[in-house]
Amino acid sequence: MQAVAVRAFHSPPELMELEPPRPGPGEVRVRMAAAGVNPLDWKVSDGIYDGERKHRFPLVLGVDGAGWVESCGPGVSRFGVGDPIFGQFLHDPVGDGTFAELAITPESIGVTKFPAEIPPTAAAALPTAGMSALQALDELGVAPGGTLLLVGASGGVGSYALQVARTRQLRVIAVARAGSETRLKRLGATEVLEFGSPSLEARVRALAPAGVDALLDAASRAPEFQRLSALVRAGGRAMTIIHVADPRAAPADGIERINFGLHPTGPLLDRVVREVVEHRLLAPIEREISLSGVPTALAESRAGHASGKTVVRIGAPSSP
What we know:
Blueprint (H helix, E strand, L loop, with lengths): L1 E5 L7 E4 L9 E10 L2 H7 L9 E6 L3 E9 L11 E5 L5 E3 L5 E5 L4 E3 L6 H6 L1 H14 L6 E5 L4 H12 L3 E6 L4 H7 L3 E4 L5 H8 L4 E6 L4 H8 L2 E9 L15 E4 L6 H12 L7 E5 L4 H9 L6 E5 L7
Parallel strand pairs: 4-7, 10-11, 10-13, 11-12, 13-14, 14-15, 16-17
Antiparallel strand pairs: 1-2, 1-4, 3-5, 3-8, 3-17, 5-6, 6-9
Helix pairs in contact: 3-4, 3-8
């Protein structure tokens, strides 16, 4: 089978010809229709889980995907051959990723069936970013009418968080790179400010003189996150998706600073499905590529040039 993999941590991703994986107990093998591109993909290739989880090389990259169950290992009860499933396929040993014609996943992790109303390309764009947006906003707990400062609003998590915030009747001050204002306002932003602008903090203070109720930051490094978190009112929460909050720092300003950690589950993914089916959430796919385009897409994601979601088309768009 064709797959995009790395031969060692920090080595360049390559399109390779590999032996198909075999499902073990409690696992299913999926013929992939599509896969979603996330920053987590290149972080896995850099060894983000090295020392914490087992890995298998060549390490097939890709976390999110959608396709049809081709075969089942012993003891599988949730799914059967031919079922359309999607989700976050990340499991131990790391290396059975979704940037491949075939992938395996335990049935017990964050995967579920996708309905006919959702095409596989859209399903593949949803799992990590969609679950992250829902869980993050649940944890921030901003009440209807409250103000959310959303940094990195044009990325995958940001694009979904905007839509979820809109359905929860939040005022969203979105921060993103120049040129994204029209798109972000269509997704639910109330105001759009430019990332990196020297007047950013002053403009946020002018828009929310008493402080924003919460910060959700998917882009800032540690110094910027610390500065922006000071825009949150006392008693509010500041959350970073990229784990730059110092867990040892005791807040003296009454602001809780949180490193977000996704807990992918089938029920959480089912919530994402409901949001889509009931037209409250749209998968904002910016482009579709083939497996051969994955190395370039990962390089662009690493450089911070990605916008919205990139989806990899792998197999047929309908059940085989």
